[in-house]
Amino acid sequence: MSYSPAWTNANYQGRLTPGAHWAKLCDLQELAVAVNRRRLLAYQDQQDYSSVICEGAYVRRPPLAVAVQPPFDNFRAALIDDILRPQPGGLGGEPPSPSSMDWLWPVPGSDENKVIVASNPQAGQVALFDKLNGGSDWTDATLTAGVSFLRAVHHNELRQAIEWISRGRWKTPIYFCGGIFSILPDAPWLSEAVANNGSDEVRNVGFAQIYCGDPEVMGLTNATARGGSFVQLTVNHACTVELYRCHRPVRFVEWPPTWNEYDPGESLAWSSPGGLGSADATYIGSAALAAGLPGTISGQGLTAALQAIVDGAQPNFLIRRSDTGDETVLITSASVTVEFDLDAPPN
């Protein structure tokens, strides 16, 4: 398992040892960072724990000093309710984005890459609490303000859960909406189609909301794309398509691209008309698609493309029909499923 968080106050296994370690302010601060990192990955706002996790505060009392949702319960609830079971579709769109978000078991073995659930796993799932303590909830599941003591096991279970919730699989639509047409090279062609009759083409440029940044960066950042990622495409006529990562910033709403220019508003031209010049796009892969049946594109080219996007490149794609025929082919659905591991800390 590649993910190794930095727990400052810990033994060699990253844990608090009863009788050897006092709980410290840094323990709570590091848990808050780890929880909020995962909230942002799941397109949720961060929570502010600073009112009770602050310089000069006692550690034993403030986390349980309020009657409703003290921070330790917030950490637990956030990990299970907000992170392990995130609500998809928070960014809107049609279809909504992301369309699904799953966390996968990251430890090599028979359960690797099964979907993590809290308890009562079904086929293809693994239960977090089964692995954590052999039960169905946290140790001392109910913590009472002013009564309960924080124990080493409470810290350690949160740390362990955070370490396991470090591999994900997000599915996000690709919105192909920027048709570029060789016959009308200076006009946008608003469509979700590709065509190629051997002399003229309609290609299409689209985007996936893999991350957003207003005002905080949410979505997939500081992560490593995995080889299990894939693009799924469905079309209404059998054809062969090629998929590319588009390098150019495209203003799909204000100034849709044309065959000659990726930004007509600024008169910015593709390095090669049609958007396949070396400065415009990188080839990902191809697929022979049957009418109405989903087909996939995966492999090293896609993994590299997704890693570039996760690292900050434009989240844009270009698709073309590479065989020839008289039909104009409608792209009826397109999505990218990104499997990833979180990089090393921030936790």
Overall shape: it is elongated
Radius of gyration: 24 Å
Number of helices: 5
Poorly predicted ranges: none
Give the percentage of residues in beta strands.
25-35%
Tally of domains:
2
Number of beta strands: 18
Main pleated sheet? 12 strands, antiparallel
Structural class: alpha+beta
- Cα-to-Cα separation, first versus last residue: 15 Å
CATH topology of the largest domain: Jelly Rolls
| CATH class bucket of the largest domain | Mainly Beta
Which CATH-level-2 architecture of the largest domain? Answer: Sandwich
List the helices and strands in order.
HHEEEHHEEEEEEEEEEEEEHEE
Helix content: 10-25%
- Overall mean pLDDT stands at 92
Account of the 3D structure:
- The protein has 347 residues and is α+β, with helices and mostly antiparallel strands.
- It folds into 2 domains: 25-165, no CATH class; 169-342, Jelly Rolls (Sandwich), CATH 2.60.120.
- Helix content is 18%, strand content 29%.
- It contains 5 helices and 18 strands.
- The chain has helices at 25-41, 71-84, 128-133, 152-164, 300-310; strands spanning 100-103, 115-117, 125-127, 167-181, 188-189, 193-196, 201-208, 211-213, 217-219, 223-225, 230-235, 239-246, 261-263, 268-269, 281-289, 295-298, 316-321, 328-342.
- The strands form 4 sheets. Strands 1, 4, 5, 6, 7, 10, 11, 12, 15, 16, 17 and 18 form a 12-stranded antiparallel sheet that branches. A two-stranded parallel sheet has the order 2-3. It has a two-stranded antiparallel sheet with strand order 8-9.
- A hairpin with a 4-residue loop joins strand 13 (261-263) and strand 14.
- The chain is elongated, with a radius of gyration of 24 Å.
- The two termini are 15 Å apart.
